[in-house]
Amino acid sequence: MRIISRKTLREFWEKHPDARQVLQAWYVDVKRAEWKSPLDIKNIYRNVSIVANNRVVFNIKGNRYRLVLVIQYEFGIVYIRFVGTHPEYDKIDVTTI
After folding, report:
1. Minimal CA–CA distance to 70: which of 59, 85, 81?
2. Going along the chain, which residue ranges are E strands?
3. Per-residue pLDDT tens for 13-48?
4. 2 forms bridges with which residues in the sheet?
5. What is the pTM of this model?
6. CA–CA separation, 1 vs 15, rounded Å?
7. What span, in angstroms and rounded, lies between the C-alpha atoms of 89 and 75?
8. Distance of CA 84 to the CA centre of its chain
9. In terms of C-beta distances under 8 Å and separation of at least 24 residues, what long-range contacts does 3-11 make, across chains too?
10. Handedness of CA 28, 29, 30, 34 (dihedral sign)
């Protein structure tokens, strides 16, 4: 998958160094993936949340952080829409961010 943008992840792990290793590993895994549907993601990441409007939510570092993506399956593109702490996540509307 093509991931837009790694800069968002990097800026986050600079503020939250404990998330760096997990986010870097996630990035490598997703870059190698070829997701064609939400089911492809669920088959690998059982705890991922599939939300409306092609949104996908990953729990990072034992649910301490959340990562929200918009995925265009037909083009193989993953857009990072949000990465933040769980309390920050609780303040957003995941279906529109």
Report:
1. 81
2. 2-4, 49-51, 55-60, 65-72, 77-85
3. 999 999 999 999 999 999 999 999 999 999 999 999
4. 77
5. 0.92
6. 26
7. 27
8. 10
9. 3/27, 3/30, 3/31, 3/78, 3/80, 4/77, 4/78, 4/79, 4/80, 5/80, 8/80, 8/83, 9/80, 9/83
10. positive
